[in-house]
Amino acid sequence: MSTVNTYAVDDKVVVVTGAGSGIGRAIARAFLANGATVVVTGRRREPLEETVAGADDGRAVVLPGDVARREDVDAMVAATLERFGRIDVVVSNAGVHDGGGDITELTDENWALLRGVNIDGFLHVAQATLPELVRSGGNLVAVSSVSGIAGDWGQAAYNASKHAMTGFVRSLALDYGGRGVRVNAVLPAFTLTEMTSGMASDEKALAPFVNRIALGRPGEPDDIAPAVVFLASDDARYVTGALLAVDGGTSASTGQPHTE
Ligand SMILES: NC(=O)c1ccc[n+]([C@@H]2O[C@H](COP(=O)([O-])OP(=O)(O)OC[C@H]3O[C@@H](n4cnc5c(N)ncnc54)[C@H](O)[C@@H]3O)[C@@H](O)[C@H]2O)c1
Question: I want to staple 19 with a disulfide (CB 3.0 to 4.6 A). Which of 40, 103, 229, 247 is the partner?
């Protein structure tokens, strides 16, 4: 684990969605390493248990739920409040990457899944937790993507879902700033997780991605997590509405090819 006791989060109750794998797991573990109390949520209990394995019982709680289902999110929030009486930080990380290809071939099922998790899921989580964040003076961090600030070839539906998230973040920062709540996003680019495992194992597919990353390698979940902990911490008290690229320099490019 790369980040230990760096940021001021040890007094915080943190909810992390999609915490059973990849970036969400790394985020949950980074908060635990920094002394926070962490509620991990996701669809299946087993991977969530693995995320918090070894953590002090009182500081890690597993509450399974599907963010696409409003009733699951409301139940998770109610159970968190019953247990801890407050929520200080919400990390909306759960996401799916589906429905690639020409938009005319996007099926209703693919779109329903993308919309349900990436857009409705964020909305459900924000609606259920913002009143609690107003009470605690807390903050929300969304794990969006560089695909939420620019386009990718063949990813129109995913791009649209991630742009929705960055749009929510900017507007909610305005709406809730006066009520003492900060709302920010991190924007990863190509990161080695289950979501990208198909491409990562195919050297030919991976090379053009790596060629566009200034730092010359794909991201790891542990590269993303410290930025989330920073944004959630009191050290970021004057940061809101920020879309923080944690992408090895991917979004620094104009898009023109790397010629060397
Ligand atoms: N991996 C990348 O290259 C990359 C790049 C930019 C942004 N992201 C974003 O990072 C976030 C995490 O993705 P990851 O790369 O760790 O992939 P991942 O597939 O390992 O993690 C996604 C997590 O979300 C959970 N999830 C999916 N649907 C859910 C639902 N309905 N309810 C609750 N949980 C659900 C999954 O079970 C999984 O644990 C996503 O929002 C993704 O869009 C990933």
Answer: 40
Shortest-distance atom of ligand 1 to CA 116: 31
Residue indicated by tokens 């329903």: 112
Q: Compute the half-sphere exposure of residue 211: CA atoms within 13 Å on the CB side of its CA.
A: 12
pTM listed for this prediction: 0.97
Angle at 220 between CA 246 and CA 190, to 5 degrees: 60
What is the rounded distance in angstroms from the CA atom of residue 92 to the CA atom of residue 199? 25
Residue 205: band (very low, low, confident or very high) from pLDDT cuts 50, 70, 90: confident
Q: Which CATH number fits domain 13-246: 3.40.630.30, 3.40.50.720, 3.30.70.940, 3.40.50.11030?
A: 3.40.50.720
How many Å lie between the centroid of ligand 1 and the Cα of residue 247? 16
In terms of DSSP bridges, do strands 60-62 and 37-41 run parallel, antiparallel, or are they unpaired? parallel
4, two tokens:
């230990």
Quick: pLDDT tens for 66-86: 999 999 999 999 999 999 999
- Residues in contact with ligand 1 by the CB-under-6-Å rule are 17-18, 20-24, 42-43, 66-68, 93-97, 117, 121, 143, 145, 188-191, 193-196
* Choice from 193, 210, 228, 247 to test ligand 1 binding pocket (greatest atom count within 8 A of CB): 193
Report CA(64)–ligand 1 centroid distance (Å).
15
Distance CA 77, CA 173 (A): 21
Whether 160 has a pLDDT exceeding 80, the answer reads yes
